[in-house]
Every structure is written in C-alpha cells, then in structure tokens.
Amino acid sequence: MTTGNETTQNDLPVRADAAPDAASESVRGANAFPLAVIELGTSAIRMAVGESDGSSRVRVLEQLVRGLSLGKDTFTQGEIQRKTLQETIRILKSYRRKLKEYQCSDPKHIRIVATSAVREATNRIEVLDRIYTATGLSVEIIDDAEIARVTYLGVRPLLQNDPTLADGLTVVAEVGGGNTEVLVLKGKDIIHSQPYRLGSLRLQQMIIHSQTTRSRMGSIMIGQIDRSFEPLLDIIPKNSPVEYVGLGGDMRFAAKVLGVELPASGLTRIGVEDLDKLTGKLLSLTVDRIMRKHHLELSQAETLVPSLLANLRLAQLLGCSQLLITGLNLRDALLQGMLRSNDWSTDFCDQIVNSATELARKYQVDLPHARHVAELARTLFRALQSEHRMDARCETLLYVASLLHEIGLFVGLSGYHKHSHYLISHSELFGLNKQDQQLVAMIARYHRRAAPKPTHELFARLDRDNRVVVSRLAGILRVAVALDHTGSQRVRDIECTIERHRLIVTVRNSAGDLSLERMELRQKALLLEDTFGLGVLLRESPR
After folding, report:
1. Which residue did the predictor score with more confidence, 144 or 3?
2. Three-state DSSP state, 221
3. Distance CA 479, CA 474 (A)
4. So what's the pLDDT on residue 112?
5. How far is Cα 6 from Cα 10, in angstroms, rounded to an integer?
6. What's the whole-model pTM score?
7. What is the per-residue pLDDT for 264?
8. Which domains does the chain have, with CATH numbers?
9. Helices (H), 122-265
10. Coil, helix or strand for 539?
11. Over the stretch 188-242, which tens digit does the pLDDT of each residue have?
12. What does 427-493 look like in DSSP terms, one character per residue?
C-alpha cells in the first residue's frame, strides 16, 4: 500500500523526499552502513532501505512498493505464471539499481524474503532459481512462524511503552494477501499465535468466483471472516477487555484517509465506527474508481476492501470501540532484526516455552511432571555443555520437547510417543520454524522405546547435523524422564558432574527410595551412553 514515505513509479522507485545523490550521501557518516529488506508479498514487491552503525536501531531511509499480484497466480492457478515472473525480475533489477545508489552491496546487509504467494506455489523452486540467475539475488522463503516471531519482536516495545497495553489483553493481527497472522498477548507474554487461512486476496478471489452482486459482496465476505475467526474467539477469555492492534499497509491507508497521523514510533487510535463508515464507502465503489480516487495500483485496490473489512470485523467481534494502528511493517521489523546477533534471547525463549505450556494444557498434560522433567533435562543439558557444545536454541528445543513428551496420551496410551510426534508436528508453536518444530516432535517421539535409526524414514530425511541434535537431546530427555519415572517429583534437586567417562547424577534432596528410578535409568540411559560415550551413575548425597 502506498502510504507514508512508500513511493512508486512505473520503472524505477525513487524517494519522495530526496534525490538519489542525497540518498547516497545519507549513509556515508562515520561508522554508518546501509541495510535493506525486500519482500515478495502477495500483492506487491516492497523494499525498505535503512542505515545503522551496528549498535543502535536501524534508521529507515526509504520504503518502496511496486504492485504485482503474485498471490493471484498462486491462489487461482497454483503456480506463478511466466509473465508475472518476468515482471518480478524486472522490479528486482530496479531495486538492485537503487541499492547501488545507497552503496548497499554486502549480501550480509541485504535480506530478500518471500511469503505465502511464493511459498504455496508449486513452481517455487523454479521461480527462486530464475530470480537468482537473472538478478544474482537470493530469495529466502519465510514461514508463518518466522513472520510471527518478527512481528512479536517488532511490536513488543510498542505495547510495553503504552501503559494501557503493558499488562492487558491485546490481539495483534496483520491481514495479508494469503493469511492473517494473529498474536494474542497478556502483557508481554504470548498466549496464542496462529496464522488463519484468511487473506485479502483469498477473499477477493472468492467474491470473483461467486459472481455475486455488489450489494451482497460485503455480507458474503463478513460471513467468511466470521467463520475463519470463530476459533480465535474461543481463546479470548469471556467478558475480558481486549485491545486490538491492526498491522499492515491497508490500516495505515485507513488512518491517512481518516486524517489520523501515525507517529514515527508508537501507536495511534481510530474509531471502529469511523473505519466502518470508510469501509462502507469503499465497498460501494468499483475497483477502478478506488484506483483513480486514491491513486493506487490495481493489485492494491483489489484487496483494499477485503483487508479493511477483515480488520473491522475482527475488532467488532472482539467488542472493541477503537483500533490501534502503527507505522510498523514487516520490512521495518526485518531491518531491525538484522542487527540482532542472538534471536534466541532469554525473553524470546520464554515466549516459546509459554506457547508450549499452553499447548500442553490444551491436551491435558500432567504439567507438574512435565515441568519437572523439563527442568531436569535443562540441568543435564548444561552439565554436558562441554561435551555437546550446543546453543540456547537447542536447549530451548529440548525444554519444549520435555514439556510435550507425553502430549500423545491425550490420544491413547498405546504408542503414545508416536501420537506425541504427530500432535507436535501439526500444532502451532510460537517462535519455532517448521524445521525446529519437527526436531521438537522427534525429540519427544524418541523419549521412549526405539532409539533413532537410519531406517526410520523421517529421521533419515534430516541432515547429519540435525540427526545428531535429535539423538543427543533425545538421550538427555530419556535420562530426565527416568529420574521422574514415578511422576512424583521426588528427585527434586540434582547436581551433575563428569568423572572418568561417566556422568554422575547426584540427588541432593530425594523424597523417598530411588530404586525404581535406578532401574528405569539402566534402560533409559543407553541412548545417552551411545551418543556421548558416557555412562550414567545415580548417587544420593549423604543426609
């Protein structure tokens, strides 16, 4: 959406407030270097250019947008058509020329991402290869988990800086062309994160295929929106006040038309009634009329009304009288993320654990047992640090797998470890991309019975490094499970040391006889012994 300082031109995007030479000069200060993010979205290809000294936040210099409906090809024909791909390459070449003006050429400072329009295309590999061959630009497909992670990290400071949102219940949503990303937060903590298969382009295509009259378009879309968001409403506590934050260019467009100024960093409010009136007016206009009246490209004008209507209806379903809007967009958040050397911060890992805990609660997991096993596994992981040299990411994967290792009992006792694998694989866990979620599922699956084997199809599909990660973490989890075999948490506090090729686990304050734990440990420790080359010995400290 062309809003703020986003600009478009038929061939080469240019800044609205500076000539190219001035743009080049802006990044030549001491220690400053340029950064750029390009997003291949469903209805447009966008670029954000910024600069930073590497220690502070990125200052956004320019945002550019070119309308191109990649999503229309994917969602109607299943693949991106040759003509659309050629236009994509032409736009990317023009962006590359702009990057040269900013002296932005280091691949480490340029990130190019593609969302659902490319991700769901059957010819996505061919598309990415063609783009790289023609432009030299490598496009990364990001999944919904990555988008949710980036959105959270970008919007969290805004919520914390607003006293009315710091401790309250907040729903954050961005209606994209293909999906709607939704985060539900209590203060800074995530209690729900999920993409909903509802997008402005999907809605627009549904209306086209229904061949309905203009007077019925709104009611048909509202019906689809209500059905899509019905599961979300079951998650929101009844009679709880909720704030709604609507992200995306269409919401920024609405603020502009309504004469509401967006702060450089922060949130502003618009009335739900005002948005309702604006949406109603736009709904009565043809796409051509919207293009001419608001100076939009076709791909943007087509999806404007469905997007605004989805935001409006969600706010109404939540019982909000106002919506909060911010200038933040995906490119801005990705730009800021390029400075972070460690995305697996303690706070971020805590949010992943919170999401896993909510999933465990949903499937009626014995949480006291699960949490105790997770803490034991964490202690073992850290004691073995010198042996495995794995990072905070792997520690978090182990902790989450420990919380969820018995989730399969919800389905049934027989083979429940395999049920655990299935449920974890097919659930939404905030902060974990598809690969990490599969690793968590496998670690949980191998907490009992057969050890990982090359003959196991899913395990064999992993590359060597990830096979090692699964084997090591599953070995640690098996020992942790054995230490709480009775589920009574009587092994309350352990100290771990490595002595003469053995892992010595000393129980410092047991609450009862540990004979059952010792017997279980003899069987469960075999995978850890095979993986680390360390025997396991359980001791009790003198009372």
Report:
1. 144
2. helix
3. 9
4. 97
5. 14
6. 0.82
7. 66
8. 6-142 (3.30.420.40), 145-337 (3.30.420.150), 346-540 (1.10.3210.10)
9. 124-135, 144-160, 200-210, 214-235, 249-257
10. strand
11. 889 899 999 999 999 998 998 888 887 889 999 999 999 999 999 998 988 889 9
12. S--TT--HHHHHHHHHHHHTTSSSPP-TTSHHHHHS-HHHHHHHHHHHHHHHHHHHHTTTSS-----
Closest CA relative to residue 436, chosen from 140, 195, 146, 124: 146
Query: Which are the contacts of 453, defined by CB distance < 8 A and separation ≥ 6?
Result: 459
HEC string of 51-83 equals EECCCCCCEEEEEEEEECCHHHHHHHHCCCCHH
Exposed/middle/buried for 350, CB within 10 Å: 0-12, 13-18, 19+? middle
Tokens of 403: 């919380």
CA 47, CA 95: separation in Å to the nearest integer? 8
Locate 184 and state its tokens: 């539900």
Q: Residue 2 is encoded by which pair of tokens?
A: 């062309």
Tell me the residue type at 116. S
Backbone angles phi, psi at 255, to 5 degrees: -60, -40
Nearest to 148 by CA among 184, 202, 188: 184
* Average pLDDT of span 38-61: 90
Structure-block tokens of residue 160: 């914390």
Phi-psi group of 78: left, alpha or beta (phi > 0 → left; psi -120 to 50 → alpha; rest → beta): left
Residues 398 and 443 sit within 8 Å (Cβ to Cβ): yes
**What 3 state SS string does 384-446 have?**
CHHHHCCCHHHHHHHHHHHHHCCHHHHCCCCCHHHHHHHHHHCCCCCCCCHHHHHHHHHHHHC
Instruction: Decide if 507 contacts 380 (C-beta within 8 A).
Output: no
pLDDT at residue 153, rounded to an integer: 86
